[in-house]
Every structure is written in structure tokens, then in C-alpha cells.
Amino acid sequence: MSTPFPRTRNSVLGYDVEEVDEFLALARSAYDGRDPASGGPALSSEAVRGTAFTMQKGGYDARAVDAALERLEDAFALRERDRAYRAVGDDAWYQQARSRAAEILQRLERPDGQKFTRAGFLRLGYDRRDVDAFSDALIEYFRAGADVTVTDVRTASFRPRRGGYSEAQVDAVLDAVVDVMLAVR
């Protein structure tokens, strides 16, 4: 029996094999068009993006699984966009995407050091300077079409800092950026 992803050595952590296999079976069913009304599972690009797996020694290589999840998210997003086109039309779809982009820009254009809620003096959050610098790149993407890719946003990482920005809030905005980028592809 073959495995869909390379496995780590028995002494190295990877993603839980059973969890990944179960998720892929769910994703395959959802992509094939089975939804709760027809007795199958429902899944969206947002759900794919938010998927996390337990770590286990000798599991699937995380990089390989993450790359597959990105492709899967793209496929679901494309399908969602096509359905929305048919439901509301191109103009309405792009207007919704522009509206979301405007909301994101309002957040990102706040003054440096004030773009997001602080994690708290004693709690770790994302380094504000790192996030502010990446925010500047996103502003250029939305304003002038700067070369920022979905992968750049998905893989953005920030140093941890006491009193930094709230990780949950920054991550939510980055997820919204990915949604907008996928919507207008």
C-alpha cells in the first residue's frame, strides 16, 4: 500500500497519518460534490486553510502535506468563486472583493504600532515592526499591484515579542487577505 506523502523518520515529528488520511477522504468527498443535504460532508476553502493536525513521530512530512493543503484550498476557492459568479454575477462578486479589500486596507493603513490590538505586556504576540513591515507590502499590493503572492501571505512569519500584536487578530486579517487574493485570481 502506498502513502500519499513522504513519512518522517520514526524519531522525527510529522503530521498524524490517520488524521491526514481522514481529512483527505473528507476533502475528496466534498470536492466530488457531496454535501450535507445529500448525506456527505461540507468543506470550504476557509475550512481547509484552518485545518491543523496532531504531530506524531514517524508521521507525514509537514511540508509536503502543507503544500497539498494549499493546492486543495486553491481548488475549493476557485470552485467557490465560480459558484458565486453564477449566483450574483461578475460585477457583484468583484464589488464584494473590493469591499473586503477596502476593509483590510483601513486596518493596514493605521499608524505603525497601532494596526492591531496588543497581546498584553506579559504575553507574547507578533513583533509589531515585522507585522507593520509586511502590512506595508500588502498595502502596496492592494494600492499598486505590488508583487505579493498568496504563498507570501500564507507563509508570512513574525518574531515573537512580549507586548506584540495579537496573533489571532493578525492571522484573521491575513486569512481575509488570502480570501480576497483567491477571489480575484
Automatic annotation (TrEMBL):
Q: Origin, by domain of life?
A: Bacteria
Check the record and name the InterPro entries matching this protein.
CHP03543, DivIVA_domain
Q: What is this protein called?
A: DivIVA domain-containing protein
Source species: Herbiconiux moechotypicola
